[in-house]
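User: I'm curious whether this sequence folds into something compact or stays loose and floppy. Could you predict its structure so I can see for myself?
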Amino acid sequence: MRLVLASASPARLETLRRAGVHPTVVVSDVDESLVEADDIRDLVSQLARLKAEAVAAEVLPADDVVVVGCDSLLEVDGTVYGKPGSPENAAELWQRLSEATGLLVTGHHVIVSAHGTVQSTNRTAETLVHFADLSDAEIEAYASTGEPEAVAGGFTIDGYGGPFITGIEGDPHNVVGISLPLLRMMLADLGVTWHDLWNTPS
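Assistant: Here's the prediction. I'll summarize afterward.
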């Protein structure tokens, strides 16, 4: 089986590689700003599906192919946050995140083309993230790294942001943007065994 990752996220790609899966990356041209939903779970689910379907339209009807689309958002006190987009927005967001607990939700959409048939499934993973009490100087320093402006919720756990996360409840991979345990279960539902995706870099 060949896995196609419908995401430009370096963190998702590296997470899969470390788990023995070296996917082909095909980035969709889905305009996320056009998608609306009242619930964070519905929103990330829709975005993940649209990304996966857009890429599947490019790579299918090839056989023995798995397409995975993901989208992550952070919810804090009922407000949903995506990518801040600038150091200024990242610093403003972190003023809210300091000492807070947020819910990181990632939508996963999997499409499997095998034996002449195409199947799909869609699920979400949720992880609670506890943020440290940061000083203004720490917030400004982190925002100036450029890291938080390009990631959902304005933080990472596997980079500069790691020291500012005091704990998580749930799958740590989900915080990086792709839940490996959930992905394994979704694939199993579609008849694909996780270790069938293990491969070497092409």
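Summary: Residues 2-197 form a domain with the Maf protein fold (CATH 3.90.950.10). Residues 40-59 form the longest helix (20 residues).
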